[in-house]
Amino acid sequence: MQGSALRVWIVLMGLAMLGLGSLAIAASLPAKAQDRASAPSEVEEPLQVQNLVHAKRRAKAATAVAPGSIGVRDPQGYEPDPGIVQWYAERGASLPINEHPIYCHGYGCEFQTPIPISDADFAELQKIFAAHSGSAVEERKAISQSVQWWERHASPLLGGPPRVRGDTQPHRPGQTDCLDEATNSTTILFYLERHKFLKYHKVERPEARGMFLFSHATALIQEIGGQAWAVDMWMYDMGDPPDMPTYAEWSSHW
pLDDT for 145-198, tens place per residue? Predict the structure, then answer.
């Protein structure tokens, strides 16, 4: 009898710890916006207008890139989206505006490791996009491969074993929660956009779904003239292909 009571107590304590962890995630994220397909509220309208302005600016910038060019090593005049700037500020992380962007790990960006991107690394990204150009569909394939490349490139420099799906190891180098992964995927996407790899998409501030025990965040891209797409790395081993459903599909899972 005593053994049964002890097991029940252990299970209850485990659930309580999970609840506290999820509350921390929920507290660090902004309130979830209405579904992008629903009618905008008065509160959301200014942000949507702002996003439209940035969409037009990025669409214009995309047309200015020479048709055969892939990436610009020394970009000039890039203006980061204010929502993304705010996201990094909320994480206490550096905006990835140089050639050694940070990689967040340890849960909640507890550890921030600069990851250098050399000329050879840049050439690898150029190869990825050269193999997948000409349409938004192909560009999303290049985005997926670039996120995988970024994870594999960063992993040896983090001071810990690669993250494996299902593991829960906070405060350990190399281990990540969904906030870390949403930030890390946004970092490489931000880098790609800043260096003019992206012609059919723009990078958005990460989004969240669910609450309490089921809070979850993802990186986000917006197809120019199309729909938003999640870039969700957290449910997979480090370096695996990310989940990339439409944002509407992703947000309806939980």
Answer: 999 999 999 999 999 888 777 667 889 998 898 899 999 999 999 999 999 999
User: Are the beta carbons of 174 and 162 closer than 8 angstroms?
Assistant: yes
Element spanning 201, H or E? strand 201-209
Q: Characterise 40 by phi-psi region: left (phi > 0), alpha (psi -120 to 50), beta (else).
A: beta
CB 185 within 8 A of CB 219: yes
* One-letter amino acid for residue 184 of the chain: N
Burial class (CB in 10 A: 0-12, 13-18, 19+), 201: buried
CA 213 to mean position of chain CA atoms: 20
Domain ranges of the chain: 2-30+46-251
Q: State both tokens at 133.
A: 């150009």
| Tokens of residue 31, six digits | 């309130």
Contact predicate 67/186, CB 8 Å: no
Q: How far apart are CA 31 and CA 17, in angstroms?
A: 22
The phi-psi region of residue 107 (left if phi > 0; otherwise alpha if psi is between -120 and 50; otherwise beta) is left
Q: What's the length of the chain?
A: 254
